[in-house]
Design goal:
About 5% of the residues lie in helices and about 55% in strands. The protein contains one helix and seven strands; from the N terminus they run E-E-E-E-H-E-E-E. Strands 6-5-4-3-7 form a five-stranded antiparallel sheet.
Length: about 100
């Protein structure tokens, strides 16, 4: 069922997102996984959204600074623990 507001924007019962593979440096290590970004949002919009204190990631690999590594199908990451975040596709892999 679709609902429309006064400006013509429509709302559905399903939230439509696109997966974006990201790498995140936290205070304790690295996380790589899929963030699900709303189609009308950018990565920075999702990170800077003050209404949400956590980022949801799926298919995430976590590598801590003390050598622990694991995979999880779902991870809820506290945004206060983020040092930096980047789309994996933006990483330049060239040798320097």
């Amino acid at each position: 069922m679709k609902r429309f507001d006064a400006k013509g924007k429509y709302y559905t019962d399903k939230v439509t997102t696109r997966p974006l593979l990201v790498r995140i440096r936290t205070v304790a290590g690295l996380v790589e996984g899929e963030m699900h970004i709303h189609f009308d949002q950018r990565l920075s919009d999702e990170v800077n959204n003050r209404d949400r204190g956590f980022l949801a990631l799926t298919n995430a690999t976590v590598s801590t600074d003390d050598g622990v590594s694991f995979f999880t199908g779902f991870l809820s990451l506290n945004k206060q623990q983020i040092v930096w975040i980047t789309p994996v596709e933006a990483i330049d892999q060239r040798d320097e």
